Amino acid sequence: MFRCFLLFLAKRFHKKWYYQNIMPKAVILEDARGKQRIDIRNFFVNPCTFELQQVVESFKHLREDIRVNLIKAWILANIKAKPEKGEFWKFPFETLRDKEGDCEDLAILLANLLVASGIPSWRVRLCAGLTDAGPHVWVTWFNGCEWVSLDFFGFRIREVWYCWDSEYAYTRKEKIEKWRRK
How many other C-beta atoms are found inside a 10 Å radius of the C-beta of residue 127? Predict the structure, then answer.
């Protein structure tokens, strides 16, 4: 009951405490498609896309935390984590087609599948930063109480450069203590 109340408060007042570091006009450009610079918010696609809906159809009726874990497990079972030569960020349907991808490909796919499964997009963020293994991209999800890292590789996060969802880019000034692994 208390958890539901917290979730209600989060939905009702999230703009006051959650969106404090929004930069809605900020465009984050990355050399994400080879030498082509692209606004990274474009990697969130229409959640009604057939390929995404096909994957999440059997998970939609489940409780949200179970759904998140099962979608992540589905990716681990069906998509091979493979480092790429160079930087070429794939759209979710490309990762599904190729059945392989590196950290940002898996993270982009996971974020899009979570939104396609019915989780509000403001509660799913992609983050880019530095880990002990080097530059990295991962997903964070707001479970109603705190932000949870859904990193596939378990790297210790040293620095967050920026986060984004389908609409906004966020500064790195946000608190990240919950994401850090000690």
Answer: 24
Residue 49 in domain: yes
142-160 tens-digit pLDDT:
999 888 999 998 888 888 8
Q: Which residue's entry shows tokens 């999230």?
A: 14
pTM above 0.85, yes or no: no
For residue 52, report the phi and psi dihedrals to the nearest 5 degrees. -70, -45
Strands 100-101 and 80-81: parallel
The Cα 10–Cα 3 span in angstroms is: 10
The boundaries of the domain holding residue 155 are 2-170
Alpha-carbon separation of residue 49 from 2, 93, 117, 133, 170 (angstroms) = 35, 9, 11, 33, 26
Beta-carbon contacts of 35 under 8 Å, excluding residues fewer than 6 positions away, are none
Extract the tokens encoding 145.
């109480």
